[in-house]
């Protein structure tokens, strides 16, 4: 091992804050990513041979999916209600998702622009189960950055 070796970050929990909206700790966060659509076109090289050119096209951000145990907090439901009632301008918010380690120290952070809740699922109930009921929020956004 060299002196520059760093261990991978261990995720204990995620905290979310979307401009006076959804706040709290989540047990699962997926979709922190982006992709470029691929544009392909055929051309010929200087010797007249056919070649396939592949270049990046439109950038697309993946939706973020957050899961947490359901509580009496109505923040996600109230935020989603704004979209359901057609008030998308009021629903759009910037926000932050922070990853914490087991010591409660922030080890990674992402910021998002113009995010809004595109889907909200309540928990599935099973009276025979001894599991925490989980609610799931899907957030659509127009860009993100990892800032820590």
From TrEMBL:
<dbReference type="InterPro" id="IPR011747">
    <property type="entry name" value="CHP02241"/>
</dbReference>
<dbReference type="Pfam" id="PF06841">
    <property type="entry name" value="Phage_T4_gp19"/>
</dbReference>
<dbReference type="InterPro" id="IPR010667">
    <property type="entry name" value="Phage_T4_Gp19"/>
</dbReference>
<protein>
    <submittedName>
        <fullName>Phage tail protein</fullName>
    </submittedName>
</protein>
């Amino acid at each position: 091992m060299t002196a520059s070796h760093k261990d991978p970050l261990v995720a204990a929990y995620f905290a979310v804050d979307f401009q006076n909206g959804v706040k709290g700790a989540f047990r699962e966060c997926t979709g922190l990513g982006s992709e470029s659509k691929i544009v392909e076109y055929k051309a010929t090289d200087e010797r007249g041979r056919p070649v396939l050119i592949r270049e990046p096209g439109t950038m697309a951000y993946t939706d973020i999916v957050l899961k947490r145990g359901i509580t009496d907090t109505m923040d996600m439901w109230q935020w989603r209600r704004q979209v359901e009632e057609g008030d998308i301008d009021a629903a759009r918010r910037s926000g932050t998702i922070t990853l914490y380690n087991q010591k409660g120290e922030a080890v990674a952070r992402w910021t998002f622009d113009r995010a809004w809740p595109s889907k909200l699922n309540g928990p599935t109930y099973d009276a025979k189960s001894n599991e925490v009921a989980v609610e799931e929020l899907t957030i659509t956004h127009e860009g993100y950055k990892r800032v820590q």
